[in-house]
Amino acid sequence: MGAADIEGMVKALKTAGIDQELIEKITYCVDYEHTVTALEARLRGGYQFQEIITDTLTTTMNFYDADSALVVSVDPDLMIAKPEFETHREGFLPVCDTGPMDLKEYPEILTAIRTVSRGNLAIPYTDVSRLLEEGSKESQRMEQIGIQSIMAVPYNKRNAGFAVVINPRNYTKYPEHNSLLQVLSYVSVAEINEMNLMNCQKGSYSEEGELAPNDVYVNLLNGFELHTNEGTLREKDIRSSQSVLFLTHLMLKKGSPVTQNEMADALWDKEHMPDEPEHRLRNISSNTKGKIIQIFPSINPFVNEKTAFSFNRRYNIITDLDMFGYRIRDIQGMPADEKRVDAYLELLSGFNGIVLPNVDHRSLERVDKLYEEKRKIAQLECISYMYDLGLYVRMHDFICNISLGRNLTSSLAYWDIKAVIGMRRLDMAFRLLEENDSIL
Fold it and tell me: What is the pLDDT of residues 215-225, one digit of tens each?
């Protein structure tokens, strides 16, 4: 909300005789809802990781009228705190520019971080001078950076650290005022984790298909294939649709456990559910491991618990469907010229197919739909770029190719009409040029 809107609302509430504490809580809730709604509207669409992180942190900084908002990763074993992303006001020294902090040199800060992290405690608005002894090394460090007060919330999903607001001036009176920071920190950290995971996976699985020792690459389109640096196994090598489906569900979970009930529902419908599904699942797990162990000689690929199955977390798993989504993100970040069109066409030709076409996999319908939605979005983005660039012939040919043997959707029909109109306009323009040339 704008400052004038908030002032007007506060004035109206005071006129109505509302208690001051209640006015402050109402103001926070209304501003919170407006801020989150406006941010969601801005982020909806084909944003890149860094844009989402930066916009979210900027929104956080502005909401709290702070000097800076940032995400700081913490490695408690190495005792290092490292600023990852930050937005800051003009004239404020960026914390990221100060580099990583060796927490061994700042024992008071290290103790506080460990206490807060272990208890998963949020830090409400806090004046730093009340926490640190005046003249101490920690106090001097905070003064050097320009930190007088902070708000912070911890995170520990995949990595550990804090989302932090520095020198907030707005919404600092009540502990619950850090609730927006908690919500927006989740957005920022989720994007950072996804970006780091994507970079790790893309870096480990190169275009040449060279895999690191703990890398596992899985093809699901046009048939199941399992790749490690020790070799490749295909659907025909495994020779069991249940083993393929069992493996697929483990791979899609990326090391998270799949309960016995979930796996049983994935492999059998109610009519064909075996009398002792747990026993059958153990047999399938054992048989599947025997078929794939040759390309996993060092580390046991399966972790079987009493009530769940999972793929060993020491392996870095990436599927072709993951790679498809990552490459869409890459292309969306390219300049909007013909190279972007070429990249889309290459992507759509390379990742064209059906998820596990030889396996009855009703349990993977959500995966099917997600891939199909991403593919359609990529097709329409490619078509729209062709239109903006005046590539009407390529656009028409592409639409004819992707709709071959299928019903032409209303969206594709609309774009094809625009392509045909564009081609006719070009044809008319060329004819006029030819007539002018003949006259001259």
Answer: 899 999 989 99
